[in-house]
Design brief:
Keywords: Hydrolase
Pfam family, one: Hydrolase_3
Shape: globular
Distance between the termini: 10 Å
Order of helices and strands: EHEHEEEHEEHEEHEEHEHEHEH
Protein name: Cof-type HAD-IIB family hydrolase
Largest sheet: 8 strands, mixed
Structural class: alpha/beta
CATH architecture of the largest domain: 3-Layer(aba) Sandwich
GO molecular function, one term: hydrolase activity
Strand order of the largest sheet: 5-4-3-2-1-12-13-14
Number of strands: 14
CATH superfamily of the largest domain: HAD superfamily/HAD-like
EC number: 3.1.3.-
Number of helices: 9
CATH topology of the largest domain: Rossmann fold
């Protein structure tokens, strides 16, 4: 099968545990792209955390960012599609985080805002640096007017397990998902990696059977289900592996490269 559109998750999939991109994987991706396949990074990161990776690989095209809440042209930085959240419905979540000492940020397509910029803990600053994010000071909430696409809570796995249980008992106006062990994301109900990939495929004239998607976590399930070939990394949770068509090697073993060679270059 010749795949025309290949969606790659970034953290835990394309990158290893040190957040490094292997040169051999870059070479393979370039070879696949040279044969006509369109490579799309489909990530929980903001565009400015993913576009540098596209540029490093010598790719043009699109980035599906914020777990599907926005699609951005990697060359022009044009927002092709975004799912705007209802800011008023976020107020209970913001209050919860403030009252319980849970770090959070709110995101526009290109901006990331935190409540107390000057008082950020070292581990929080380090996290933002790892994901190539530069936080800004959140203005007074009553004055907010920009379109928001994602709300993220960050903390230890145990703490976020508690938060997830609490929020799961609420009437949920958002798509709430664990995008990593240390993150909970809230987005518009329609926003997901799978739906964004679907919208991009419609625009590009590509049917699902000509799409491959590779990911490693629960936020990747929708795109693994939508793609004709959904591949999970060996480092994925068991539920993600069971939902995929196939399991490749881990992110520390260049599983993306292994899958591309098997299905696109063999």
């Amino acid at each position: 099968m010749s795949y025309r559109l290949i969606a790659l998750d970034v953290d835990g999939t394309l990158l290893d545990d040190q957040h490094e991109l292997a040169p051999e994987t870059v070479d393979t991706i370039r070879e696949v792209a040279a044969q006509g396949a369109e490579i799309v990074l489909c990530t929980g990161r903001a565009p400015f955390g993913a576009i540098p990776l596209m540029e490093r690989m010598g790719l043009t095209g699109y980035v599906i960012s914020h777990n599907g809440a926005a699609i951005v042209d990697a060359t022009t930085r044009e927002i092709v599609l975004q799912y705007q959240m209802d800011t008023r419905s976020l107020e209970p979540y913001i209050s919860y985080c403030k009252e319980n000492g849970v770090h959070f940020d709110v995101n526009t397509a290109f901006g990331l805002y935190v409540d107390q910029l000057e008082g950020l803990k070292l581990e929080v600053r380090s996290m933002y640096e790892t994901f190539l994010m530069e936080p800004l000071q959140l203005p007074r909430w009553a004055d907010w007017s920009e379109p928001l696409v994602k709300f993220t809570a960050f903390g230890s796995m145990e703490r976020l397990d508690e938060v997830y249980r609490d929020w799961s008992s609420w009437e949920q106006p958002f798509n709430m998902l664990r995008s990593g062990d240390f993150f909970i994301d809230l987005m518009h109900k329609q926003a997901s990696k799978g739906e964004a990939l679907h919208q991009l495929a419609l625009q590009r004239g590509v049917t699902p059977d000509a799409i491959m998607a590779i990911g490693n976590y629960y936020n990747d399930l929708s795109m693994l289900a939508y793609a004709g070939k959904g591949i999970a990394m060996a480092n994925s949770p068991e539920g993600v592996k069971l939902a995929a068509d196939e399991v490749t090697l881990s992110n520390n073993e260049q599983g993306v490269r292994h899958a591309l060679i098997k299905y696109c270059l063999s």
